[in-house]
Design goal:
mainly beta; 56% strand; 7 helices; disordered N terminus; 5-stranded mixed β-sheet
């Protein structure tokens, strides 16, 4: 393996160099100085008293421009999965326990708009790669400011500040008939901008029954009314279709990892059932910022959204209609006295949805007789306040707390069990306290303690078994954390390490019945310990040479997650590993950009074996992935730029599963990821 890796690196490094006159941007030195919004501190990353990962355009651009999955997986403590093209799961410190599909227990915001619906689901697959400019990942309970959730929060921004007027075009193609198109036009000036975008991604997929297509259209506008007031809007329409191949047993996975789930007993194959997801989403959010005085300002968001989903599956055919709306308001007051400053942030967030879910029999991918018809009325709201105090001697103290309320009412309209059932979760306090200190120039240390609260979502109380489960309890826990952030050698070397201890009670875990339908149960308590670290090193002291940027980077995650007290009937799982979470994972790479314009990105990822069930009797094997991208950026004129690129993923053609179905009945855990695959394309940029 080591010899093959060296050959691969040498081959990519031998790509011929071409000319360009502009100097590449040094993203290495700027990352640690990026100002992040996490916990409303609006401070440089190295000064934030929390475990926050920042993913910028340079990190996103290392790969094939079809997904932000590999960039997220290169950051410590975060793991994103793709069970089939278009089917994503996001794991922050083990939160995938609750996610048979989609994203749950992680609160996501897009341009400040709640992207997670009031039922607890986040359709991250409705965002194109080109709808993301930067991502902030807040690890650990973030309930003190971002509502109910024990898995963290994700803040996504679609555009850079002061986006210049112009046109961006992108086209790439690759293995499995990959077609990736993006067109974006930005009009206006610094006071008023409009950006119109369209992206289309399609692929035949690596496995049988994995064809996908996604179209996303967006409109974003910003209008500076006055020095005190600014308005903004973000509108998105997504139309997504992807086939679902189903999980394979270990024997099927070894024999033919490309196959879809075959017929078994009374259940048809994935192909015969025409198993797929048809999903359309519309979202419109409006933001108003107003500065009352020099010391007091407010940012408010209101939004409305609608998702329509059709899901022919192996056991039934489901239709879901999910309209919802909500808003968030945040007041910020700040004052400074000599070397002391105080900022107080307070506000609230509320969401409400009126969902309807119908299940039918599935006959060849078409709905048959109605089995269940349920109206779901869900709401969630929270109020929060946080104070941030900067003290002499480079001390910083942050304290915040929120109160949360959730209710889900399900009215069954058909069948023998018609009637109304309500699951209401009483108000829960979620505090957070953090302190940080600059020990010496370039070295910051912090410590924090926080409490998380996360009620079951609508898809957990009413899972794909269509059996209503109002006995589920909310999970909650306390997280203790300490970390260090440091920059050395004139900021060429950046190192960040954090350690945490998290005790979760009433943990909600996913299980699957014989047909493959998911359901959920409370799993007693868990004990989660971990160390997450990352480092980057700028190899060259200055850019006055042929190579403008040469950067080595690496991240490591160690997660020791165990059930502390969990027993199912006579099965004792206490002390077992939490399924779906590797003990060790490592990502590393090398980024080189030359003054003439040639660049290369080399990446490597390793994952330890992963437990596939609560009993830990079945394990997914470890795997190594290597890939690379190389290209040439050249100016065609003062206003235009062309980027020609090509690359390869999984260069050693490793067979592995990316997105295991945890606790699957019959051992159908495995969803094979693509083998070696290639891509290439071009990007064109024109500035008015």
């Amino acid at each position: 393996m080591k010899t093959s890796l060296l050959i691969f690196l040498a081959a990519l490094a031998s790509v011929s160099l071409r000319a360009q006159h502009d100097q590449p941007q040094d993203t290495v030195r700027t990352l640690q100085e990026v100002v992040v919004k996490a916990y409303e501190q609006n401070r440089q990353l190295k000064e934030v008293s929390a475990a926050v990962n920042v993913i910028n355009t340079a990190q996103l651009g290392r790969y094939n421009n079809t997904s932000f999955l590999p960039a997220l997986n290169a950051t410590p403590g975060v793991h994103m999965e793709e069970r089939s093209p278009g089917s994503y799961r996001l794991n922050i410190r083990g939160s995938t326990l609750r996610s048979p599909f989609g994203v749950r227990n992680v609160k996501v915001y897009w341009n400040g708009i709640p992207f997670t619906d009031p039922g607890g689901n986040t359709y991250l697959n409705q965002l194109s790669y080109f709808n993301v400019n930067s991502i902030e990942v807040l690890k650990g309970p973030a309930s003190s400011l971002y509502g109910a959730g024990t898995g963290g929060a994700v803040l996504i921004n679609s555009q850079a500040n002061n986006e210049p007027a112009g046109i961006n075009l992108h086209y790439s193609t690759g293995s499995y008939n990959l077609q990736n198109i993006n067109a974006q036009v930005t009009l206006g000036d610094s006071d008023h901008t409009n950006t119109f975008g369209y992206a289309r991604l399609s692929s035949d997929g690596y496995r049988d029954q994995t064809r996908m297509r996604r179209d996303v259209a967006t409109w974003e506008t910003r209008y500076k009314v006055s020095a005190k007031q600014e308005l903004a809007a973000s509108v998105l329409y997504g139309d997504l279709y992807y086939q679902t191949p189903g999980g394979l047993t270990a024997a099927q996975f070894r024999e033919n990892p490309k196959s879809a789930r075959p017929a078994a007993g009374a259940f048809p194959s994935a192909r015969d059932a025409n198993a797929a997801i048809y999903q359309k989403t519309f979202l419109a959010g409006f933001t108003h910022q107003y500065r009352f005085t020099e010391h007091l300002q407010n940012t408010s968001v209101v939004y409305g959204a609608f998702s329509n989903i059709k899901n022919p599956a192996i056991r039934n055919y489901e239709r879901r209609s999910e309209p919802h709306f909500g808003g968030r308001t945040m007041f910020t007051w700040n004052r400074q006295w000599r070397q002391t400053s105080l900022q107080i942030s307070f506000g609230g967030e509320g969401q409400r949805g009126f969902f309807n879910t119908k299940t039918f029999g599935n006959v060849g991918g078409q709905p048959d007789t109605v089995q269940t018809d349920d109206d779901i009325d869900n709401y969630i709201y929270s109020g929060f306040v946080q104070g941030d105090l900067q003290l002499p001697g480079d001390w910083s103290v942050s304290a915040g707390v929120s109160i949360n309320k959730t209710s889900i009412t399900i009215t069954r309209l058909t069948g023998p069990e018609t009637g109304k059932l309500t699951a209401s979760f009483n108000s829960e306090w979620a505090p957070r306290f953090a302190v940080s200190k600059k020990i010496i120039p370039g070295l910051n240390m912090y410590a924090s303690v926080s409490r998380g609260f996360s009620p079951p979502g609508s898809a957990e109380i009413l899972p794909s078994t269509s059996i209503i489960n109002t006995s589920l309890q909310a999970e909650h826990g306390v997280n203790y954390e300490a970390g260090v952030k440091s920059s050395w050698l004139q900021q060429r070397l950046y190192v960040e390490v954090n350690a945490f201890y998290y005790q979760l009670r009433n943990a909600i875990v996913q299980r699957r019945d014989a047909s493959g339908a998911d359901y959920f149960a409370n799993a007693g308590s868990t004990r989660q310990r971990g160390i997450e670290s990352q480092a980057s090193y700028q190899l060259l002291p200055n850019s006055n040479r042929f190579v403008g940027t040469a950067r080595l980077w690496a991240s490591h995650t160690w997660h020791h997650f165990r059930y502390q007290d969990y027993k199912v009937i006579t099965n004792e799982y206490s002390g077992n590993k939490l399924p779906g979470v590797p003990v060790h994972s490592v990502a590393a790479g090398l980024d080189i950009a030359t003054r003439p314009g040639w660049y290369i990105n080399l990446t490597w990822f390793y994952s330890d074996p992963i437990a596939l069930n609560d009993a830990n009797t079945d394990m997914a094997t470890s795997y190594n992935l290597a890939g690379g991208r190389t290209g040439w950026r050249m100016p065609l004129s003062k206003m235009t730029m062309l980027d020609l690129f090509a690359g390869v993923d999984n260069v050693f053609d490793v067979t592995y599963s990316l997105g295991n179905d945890i606790n699957a009945a019959g051992g159908r855990y495995y969803n094979a990821a693509p083998g070696v695959n290639y891509f290439g394309g071009l990007s064109f940029q024109y500035r008015f």
